Every structure is written in C-alpha cells, then in structure tokens.
Amino acid sequence: MSYALQYQCLCAAGYNIPAKAAGDVMALQQVRWYICTSTSAYLPQGKLQGKGLLCDWLSSGPAHSQQRPRVLLLSPSPADVPEFCCCPGAQLMSPSPASHQPLLYSLYTYDCVATSSSTTMVKFADDTVVMGLILANNLEEIKHLENWCQENNLLLNVSKTKKLIVDCSKKQERHYQPVMINGTTVERVDSFRYIGVHISQDLSWSRHTNSLAKKARQRLYHLRHLRDFRLPSKVLQNFYTCTIESILTGNITVWFENCTKQDRQALQRVVRSAERITHTELPDLQTIYYMRCQTKARRIVKDPILPNNRLFSLLTNTERLKSSFYWQAIRALNQGN
Length: 337
Prior knowledge:
Helix content: 40-55%
Structural class: alpha+beta
Largest sheet: 2 strands, antiparallel
Number of domains: 3
GO molecular function, one term: methyltransferase activity
Shape: globular
Domain Alkylated DNA repair protein AlkB homologue 8 N-terminal: 205-246
Strand order of the largest sheet: 1-2
Number of helices: 12
Order of helices and strands: HHHEEHEEHEEEEEEHHHHHHH
Organism: Electrophorus voltai
Number of strands: 10
Distance between the termini: 38 Å
InterPro entries: AlkB_hom8_N
Oligomer: single chain
Radius of gyration: 24 Å
Protein name: Alkylated DNA repair protein AlkB homologue 8 N-terminal domain-containing protein
C-alpha cells in the first residue's frame, strides 16, 4: 500500500494527521505502531483480516513490536480523537483511553453490514439503524443483526429500540408483523429522534421544527437578561449565534426545504424576536440554508471518494427530490457561480 493511501486510510478512520506527514515514511510507521499496539489488546485475533485496506494494513502491522517511536507526539484533540504532530526529538505521550475508542468501536463493528440489497445499515457511534423495504414481512435482517451481536458479545438494548414504518400508500392501514428481539417486542412509534433530528412516519418536519422553536424560545429568556445587563450588541449577537442560531440551523440542509410555510414562519419569528432584543440585523434562515448547501455541496463535489458524490448528476424529476438537499445544493452552486 502506498504511503499516500495509508495517510488517507488513517484520516478516514478519524485521526487528525498533518498533511505534511503523508510522505513521511517514518511518521506513518510510528502512527501504525501505536494503533496496532493499542488495538491488539481489545480486538480478537483475526478480527481485522480481510475487512478492507485499513484493517489489512493494521492487521499486518507490528502489533507486538518492542521498538518505540522516537519522533511522535500524541495529544487528545477536542473531539477525543488523537491528533498526531511530528516534531523532532519528542517523546511518545499516550492519550486517554477514550481518545481511541471511536477507532476501536469502528473496527469492532466493521463487519456488521446489511446482507440484502434492499436493506441499508447506518451506524453512527453506538447508534445503529436498519432501514429497508418491507417485503412480505421479511425480518431476516433484524435476526441477522441479533445473531451478530450475540457472536460478538454485544447486547442490544430493546427498551431503546424503536420501529418506525413509513407507508405512503393511501389504502387501508396494513398490519405488519411485530419485530422481536431476544423474545421482546419492539415498540412501534410514529416518530423518533436520531442524531438531533425528529423523523416522522409521514416524512413531515412539523414535529422537528416545533421542537426547535420551543427550545430556541427558551434561550431567548437568557438573551433578554443579558440585554438588561446592558451588554454590547456584539456580545448579544455572539450569544445568539452560539446558543439560539445553532439550534435553529442544526442539520438545516436536511429538513428546511421540505418544511411547510407555517413551520418556517414559526422559526423565523424566533429570529425576529432576537433582532428586537439585540437591536441588530440577524441573518434569516433561508440565507443560512443556501450558504450551508453551497459549502456542503462544494466539499462533496471536490471529493470523488464520497459515496454521495455521484448524486449530483441525478436527472430524476420528482417534487420530493426537488426539495432534497442535493437538488437544492446544485441550485445553490449554480447561483454561486
């Protein structure tokens, strides 16, 4: 494997390595030594073999080598991910155990994938979503996940597991077979919160926007108190950006374009209230949305390795697609050029 590819594998695994270390043979070997020695104590033997470039590279590394790095400095980054800095004569400083847990968990669950072409398994940290078509009440994918967890000494928390069915047909409500995990029936809900976004069974965003508006209005109370203390408008604006705007614009590229007019007006009323409190002009949500779309779209277009890079060439003409992030991102890029 070339050193440039080794550098890309480490970056994809969540390690922040300076770009100047991509061609440094010694630096990459030292990074490999540390990861191998820190993961060998937690992962079963043979767990990484045949699981991809990064796993093959690590599994063939010097897991029990006694040669210590001499020019490598490790320090925990704010996101609890080791940050590697090469500096001559530095000593090896072992980060906290939590710093390499994301990599260990990613490697441990690397082979937990969907077995059917109609099913997708989405993993984010320790949250796993099984998403697929319901074909004749086929629940084999759930059983496969349950068996995988048993074989790998992991436990599914059934009390936190929810079932959401999206049925856009206008026919009479169908009856679906209940999902069973370890003999316990999984609760069916009409919406659930995943990575900060409320997803409803009717694919509407009213519940999500209502939740955002309620949380943002609560923060306005603190903004009014700061105004009563006669703080400068710049300080009030910074407080709004950090505590209120960050709530209103969380994952905005996913849901904003599909919101109803009433939902957008409810969110915009919070912005107008903040403008009256701070006596400054604040950016509206529509402007922030287009800016976020342009930024994210440019980042995706520049990286052909990303799986959603090919989605920018879609020609399908549907109303739901026109309101999706990709369609709006392409429109924002065209307007920006």
